[in-house]
C-alpha cells in the first residue's frame, strides 16, 4: 500500500482498531547502525489523537529503549517524539510510558538522572545496549510495524474526498500505459509538480 489508494478493507480494519475496537494494537520497525529511527525525517506532530491503543507493552518497551539509545530524553520528550512519529494522530499515555521507563530502570537497561525541578532524564545503559543488540530482529520488526501504522494513520486522517482524488490521479497516470513520449511526459510531470506546489503552499497560480 503506497498511500494513494482510496479507503480500503485493510484501512477500515486498521481504523476500527485505531479508534478502540477490540482494544486493537498497531503494528510496527527498521534498524540501522544503532539508530532505529534514523530515517524518520520530516515528520511533524499536530492534529487530533486517536483513541485506540497502537503499541503493545512489548513494543513500547523496545521503542522507548531505542529512542533513548539515540540520546538521553525526558519522559515528556519521549511522548512528544512518538506523537511526531505518528503525525500527531496518536500519543501514548503517560500512564503507559512512565511505568515502562521505571521498568527499564529496574531491569538495568536505563539510568536516570534527576535534574533541577525534579525532571528525570533517561539514558540507556551498557546492559540496555546489549539487550538491544541481542534483540535487533525484534527491534527491526517493531520499527517497521510503527512506520506502517504511522503511514496508515496519516492516510486515514485525510478527508475522503482527498483520498478519492488521489486514487483518480493514480488511475489516470497508470491508464496511460506505454503511450508516452518526451513531450507528454514533461506535460504530465509539470501538471503533477504544479499540483504538488499548490497543495503544499495552499495557493494557486491565480492567487
Automatic annotation (TrEMBL):
Top-level taxon: Bacteria
InterPro entries: Tscrpt_reg_PadR_N, WH-like_DNA-bd_sf, WH_DNA-bd_sf
Transcription regulator PadR N-terminal domain: residues covered: 64-133
Transmembrane segments: none
PANTHER family per the UniProt record, alphabetical: TRANSCRIPTIONAL REGULATOR YQJI
Protein name, as recorded: PadR family transcriptional regulator
Amino acid at each position: 500500500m503506497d498511500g494513494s489508494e482510496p479507503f480500503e478493507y485493510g484501512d477500515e480494519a486498521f481504523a476500527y482498531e485505531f479508534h478502540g475496537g477490540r482494544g486493537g494494537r498497531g503494528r510496527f520497525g527498521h534498524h540501522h547502525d544503532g539508530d532505529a529511527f534514523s530515517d524518520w525525517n520530516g515528520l511533524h506532530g499536530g492534529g487530533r489523537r486517536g483513541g485506540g491503543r497502537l503499541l503493545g507493552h512489548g513494543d513500547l518497551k523496545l521503542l522507548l529503549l531505542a529512542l533513548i539509545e539515540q540520546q538521553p530524553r525526558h519522559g515528556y520528550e519521549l511522548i512528544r517524539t512518538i506523537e511526531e512519529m505518528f503525525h500527531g494522530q496518536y500519543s501514548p499515555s503517560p500512564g503507559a510510558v512512565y511505568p515502562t521507563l521505571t521498568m527499564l530502570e529496574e531491569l538495568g537497561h536505563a539510568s536516570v538522572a534527576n535534574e533541577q525541578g525534579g525532571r528525570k532524564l533517561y539514558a540507556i545503559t551498557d546492559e540496555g545496549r546489549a539487550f538491544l543488540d541481542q534483540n535487533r530482529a525484534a527491534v527491526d520488526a517493531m520499527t517497521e510495524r510503527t512506520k506502517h501504522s504511522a503511514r496508515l494513520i496519516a492516510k486515514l486522517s485525510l478527508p475522503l474526498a482527498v483520498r478519492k482524488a488521489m486514487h483518480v490521479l493514480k488511475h489516470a497516470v497508470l491508464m496511460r500505459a506505454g503511450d508516452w513520449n518526451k513531450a507528454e511526459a514533461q506535460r504530465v510531470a509539470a501538471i503533477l509538480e504544479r499540483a504538488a506546489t499548490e497543495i503544499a503552499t495552499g495557493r494557486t497560480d491565480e492567487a
